[in-house]
Amino acid sequence: MHTNRHFIEIAAVRTPVQQGCHWTGRVLPLLLLFGIAPLLAAQDDLEAWEFDAEYPNHVILGLGGVSVSGDDAQFAKRNRIGEEFWGGLESLRYRGEHGEGLLLDVQGRILPGIGDYLAKLRITKEDLGFLEVGYKSTRTYYDATGGYDPATGYSYSYFDESLHLDRSELWVAAHWVGDAGTSLDLRYRYRTREGKKGTSSWADGTTPGGRNLGIIPGFYEIDERIHSVELDVNHQSEQLEVNVGGVWQTHEQDNTRNFRRQPEQSADRYFVHREKFETDMLNGHGSMSYRFNEKTRLNVGTSYTRLDTILNGSRTINGEFSTVFDPNFVRQNRDHGFLDLDGETQVRQWVMNANLEIRASENLQIVPSVRVENYDTESLAHVLETNANGRGVDSFHELQPFGDSYWDDVAAELAVVYRGLPKWVLSAELLGSRGEGDIAETDLDVETAEILFDRSTRRDRSEQKVSVTAKYYPQPGLNFVFNAYHKEGKNDFDHRIDPTAPVGGDRFPAYYEQLDFSTQDLNLRVTWRPSRQLSLVSRMDYQESTISQRAADLMLVDSGDLQTVIYSQAFTLVPNDKVLLQGSVSFVKDRVKTPADDIQGLNPAIAPDGKNDYWQADLSANFTLSSTRSLMVRGFMYKSQGFSKYLSGAVSYGFTDEQRSILLTGRQKIDDFTTVSLQYGYFDLSELTTGGRNDYDAHVVYCRWERQF
Predict the structure, then answer these.
(1) How far apart are CA 389 and CA 85, in angstroms?
(2) Which of 232, 259, 438, 623 might form a disulfide with 631, Cβ 3.0–4.6 angstroms?
(3) What is the dihedral of CA 697, 698, 699, 702, to 10 degrees?
(4) Is 632 exposed, middle or buried (CB count within 10 Å of its CB: 0-12, 13-18, 19+)?
(5) Residues 399-456: tens digit of each pLDDT
(6) Which pLDDT band holds residue 648 (cuts at 50, 70, 90)?
(7) Beta strand pairing call for 674-687 and 556-576
(8) Region for residue 127 given its phi and psi (left: phi exceeds 0; alpha: psi -120 to 50; beta: otherwise)
(9) Rounded to a whole number, what is the largest CA-CA distance in the chain?
(10) What's the confidence (pLDDT) of residue 46?
(11) CB neighbour list of residue 415: distance below 8 Å, 6 or more residues apart
């Protein structure tokens, strides 16, 4: 699925033009109050503004409003806008010397309407290091809309689908510079995630046409806390660079996934899947880079991680959202849940990388490298399984699942670069890897000591990739870059112990014994500057992938064929010193073909080939109206076409939508230190995939006052 990132890209302009509701003629008086209603000015991201080097400090105040007709939640999700009005301190930056060799750096942002805050203080002492303290918080919006049945127009909504998630971070960092090229970095971070968001795990409901489709939306409730301490010691000399460090981290999570099955039917019930755990992670790492001479350098890095986790949670089915099991609620037959999960897992991972940079001659560079990885896991849990018979009787079984796995992987790569031909640079890469490991899974009935499930699987994986690149520079301002690669992989599964019957419906996951893939890619990029005023960039890309699989007692068959064709064209035109034009257009043809569409006698509406074709165009014009005024006009269009509707007995899939936007930005320089700007944006979405439930039209106005000092 492709989303409209256009507004975020062009109006992140340090304009949090990012909230949504309804407003009527209350914004215009505020704009007139700023005295810039006649202006529409161009603006780039704040970091791209050209501040006077003599006056690097600034304060920026902003005020905005938005009017949305249609789905507010979808507009907020795509454009990070969730309020009718917002504003405040958009940016504060102060840098100044205080005392001999002491530098103070302050940054701040306070935008309560959109939940965007930043406070950072850094004190730097010349030749000694710095101390930094900071806090930031951001809000992300979600639209938890569920699925849609085009055949009947059926969709279902039973909660407020306009959701948001707040992320925050508090940190303290110190950097110390010692003698003889030694430095130390120490950082403490405390991070949180709180709020609600949608989930792609939809439940089933019965449409008016009698079809049972998984299109009923659900949502997550998120509550997470992470503490981490990071330490790195670095040493650098003429020939040697060394880094040694470690990370200690604890993570606490208490999340729930909530969904409802068969709403407003006799089988209506609510599911709450609680995922609670605590992890303790310790990592040690180090790296070394040693230069033998002007032509040879050795680079080595290694990392060891230990991760211990305590698992808790439950899965309850009740007449309302609750993590408490209701013994009086009549559940449906085979409603399967669990209570009082208490488990532990241990993960150990070791990784080592090494490469040797060799300049064999003036025109030839060779880089061989190797990567080795090993990890193993152990897990053990106790849980109370619940099952229902549909007549008000629940059964309980105390189970003890446990298992372990390990994995060894070795990969080697050889990269070669040759510059011996005039106007050419040739390079090639050869990669090969091999991995193997075991997975053991067991489930024990504690009361009877009966082994309910026992499986042991051997895994073998291999992968190879060959890539060649040619760069050609026939003349100044013109170059060609061609790349081609072939990649293939093979996965074999040997189920040494398999509890499933050799025939029948319950054969997963031991049903698969071989899974292979191959990918071919060809791409060409052309950069051409025919004149000082015009530059062009063209790109063409073709990729094809094939997936093959072999199931138990069956032959190896091609289960999927993926083809993607991409063409894009971009240009920059500067006809004079007053006008700058930039634009781009992209066309993508994306296909996924499976054998299901070719089976004779099968209804083609059951599983048609998937597609995700789209095109998009972007055009901007920047005008310098005078020494104090500028204007930018930017338009964007996007259209995708891949929705497969009216499927027989299945949920419709794919995506089709149309997006349009236009942004006008004007900037007026009041004096050498003060600038005001006004921005207007129009955004439109029409989405067939959800039957128009996500459609919207939105108007956004944002004004800004900036002062340098």
Answers:
(1) 53
(2) 623
(3) -160
(4) buried
(5) 999 999 999 999 999 999 999 999 999 999 999 999 999 999 999 999 999 998 898 9
(6) low
(7) unpaired
(8) left
(9) 87
(10) 34
(11) 366, 367, 368, 369, 427, 428, 429
Q: Contact at 8 Å (CB) between 583 and 571? A: yes
CA angle at residue 432 from 429 to 433, to 5 degrees?
A: 140
Asked whether the beta carbons of 547 and 519 are under 8 A apart, the reply is no
Q: Determine if the peptide bond prior to 509 is cis (ω within 30°).
A: yes
The CB density around residue 610, as the number of other CB atoms within 10 Å, is 17
One-letter amino acid at 608 equals: P
Half-sphere exposure of 414 (CA within 13 A, CB side): 4
Structure tokens at 253: 């999570």
* Cβ contact 103:116 at 8 Å: no
Rounded Cα distance, 335 and 386, in Å: 8
Summarised one tens digit per residue, pLDDT across range 262-277 is: 999 999 999 999 999 9
What are 172's two structure tokens?
A: 């303290």
DSSP 71-123: -HHHHHHHHT---SEEEEEEEEEEEEE-STTEEEEEEEEEEGGGTEEEEEEEE
Instruction: Measure the CA–CA gap between 615 and 41, rounded to whole angstroms.
Output: 28
Structure tokens at 524: 């060409």
Counting DSSP H helices and E strands in the chain, the numbers are 3, 27
628: number of Cβ within 10 Å = 12
How many residues in the chain?
A: 709
Q: Coil, strand or helix: which one is 34?
A: helix
Q: Cα separation of 177 and 175, whole Å? A: 7
Residue 10 main-chain phi, psi, to 5 deg: -95, -20
> 26 vs 62, 64, 345, 370, CA distance in Å?
16, 11, 57, 64
Lowest-pLDDT choice from 5-19, 273-287, 324-338, 575-589: 5-19
CB-CB contact of 144 with 161 (8 Å): yes
Name the residue with higher pLDDT: 473 or 6: 473
Q: Spell 376-403 as b/e; 16+ CB within 10 A means b.
A: bbebbbebbbbbbeeeeebeeeebbbbb
Closest by CA position to 269, among listed 339, 336, 223: 336
pLDDT digits (tens, 9 = 90+) for 337-382: 999 999 999 999 999 999 999 999 999 999 999 999 999 999 999 9
Torsion sign across C-alpha atoms 189, 190, 195, 197: positive
CA 685 – CA 7 distance, rounded (Å): 12
Backbone phi and psi for residue 655, each to the nearest 5 degrees, phi listed first: -145, 135
Q: Are 634 and 10 in contact (CB under 8 A)?
A: yes
661: Cα within 13 Å, side-chain hemisphere: 29
Spatial distance between the Cα atoms of 667 and 681, rounded to a whole number of angstroms: 15
> How many CB atoms are located within 10 Å of the residue 253 CB?
17
Using CA atoms, how far residue 205 sits from 218, 272, 273, in Å, is 12, 17, 19
Q: What are the angstrom distances between the C-alpha of 12 and each of 3, 4, 19, 45, 365? A: 16, 13, 13, 6, 42
